[in-house]
Design a protein that fits this description.
With 307 residues, the protein is α/β, with parallel strands linked by helices. The protein has two domains: 11-147 and 155-178 and 220-306, Vaccinia Virus protein VP39 (Rossmann fold); 180-218, no CATH class. It contains nine helices and 15 strands. A nine-stranded mixed β-sheet has the order 1-2-15-14-3-4-8-7-13, sandwiched between helices. Helix 3 packs parallel to helix 4. The chain is globular. The chain binds S-adenosylmethionine. The site of S-adenosylmethionine has 19 residues, from strand 15.
Amino acid sequence: MGERSSTSGTARGAGRGGSGELLRRLAPPALFRTAHGVSLVGDALTLLRTLPSQSVDLVLTSPPYDGQPRYGDGERYDREWFVGYFLLTTREVLRLLRPRGSFVLNYRSKRAGAERGTLQYELVLALKEQGFLFCEDFVWGKPSPPPGKFRRFLKDAVEYCFQFAKTEDWQFFPEQCLAPARWDAKDRARRRALPQNYVRVNEPSGQGRKRALAGPDMVRPSTLLLVEPEFSRNPTEHPARFPVEIPEFFVRLLTRPGDLVLDPFAGTGTTAVAAEGLGRRWIVCEAETSYARAIEDRLRPLGKRRS
Ligand SMILES: C[S@@+](CC[C@H](N)C(=O)[O-])C[C@H]1O[C@@H](n2cnc3c(N)ncnc32)[C@H](O)[C@@H]1O
C-alpha cells in the first residue's frame, strides 16, 4: 500500500498509521489493491477474525437477503445463516470497531406468503444484545422501485440502513453531507421578500430595514435517503447491488478522509468505490470470485485516477 493521499495525510491519520501496514498483510489473499484499499476473495468471518481490535472506523455492509438463493451453490440464505453465521460476523465487527466507529447495516427482510419477514427487527435486537448501541434507522426510499406483480402488496420501495455504534461518542460529520435546502431558488427569493424575514433597525442613515437570512441554502440532510435503485450496467448479473450514493452518504456522515472503511459482504464493491472516491482507506471481502472480479474492474480506473 502506498502512503496517504494529500486529503488523508493529516496528523490525526499519522497517529493511527497502523492501517497502511494492516492493509499490506491481510488474509485471505488480496485479489486487487489500490493505494487506499484492498479487495479480498474469501469468507467474511475468516477475514474479520484476522483484523486487530479497534482498527476500523466504519463497517458498512449489505448482507444477502433472507430466503435469497445462495449465489452459485443452490442453497438459500435462511434464518439459520443469519443466526448461526451472520451474528458471529457482527460480534467481530463490534470487536474491531474503533471506540467512535459505526456499523451501518443495509437490510430489509423479504416478504413470505402474506407477511413481511421480521428478521430485520430481530437483528436489531440481537445486535443490541451483543453490545451495540442502536443509533438510527435511516430509510432508503426508492422513487422508482422495481416492478412486480403482487396480489396483496404494493411495490417495495423501502430499505433500511440501521446504524449501530460502540459508544455514545460515535463520530458524526453532517457538515460533510449537506443537502440543498428544501425550497428552490424561486421560493428562496420569495421568502427573502417576506416582511418576517427582515429585522427593524434604527440606523442614523435612515435605513430602517435589514435583511435577515431566510435560511441557509444548504442544510443537514434527513434520515430519508431518496435514491433510485441501481440501474447501471451489471455485467456480473449480481442480484442486489446498492447505488453508490448509499455508501457515499454514510462514508461522508461517519468518517473523515484517511479513516478505514470495511465491507465484509462486498458484492460488486460499491462500498469500495465510494471509499476510494472519497479518500478513505478500505477493505472489502467477497466470497464469489466473479463478483470480486467486478470489484477490480470498477476500482482499477479509480485507483489510477488517484495515484
Ligand atoms: C447483497 S450482496 C452485496 C452487494 C453490494 N452491496 C453491491 O453493491 O454490490 C451480498 C454479498 O455477500 C456475499 N457473501 C455471501 N456470503 C459471504 C461470506 N460468507 N463471505 C463473504 N461474502 C459473502 C454474496 O456473494 C453477495 O455478493
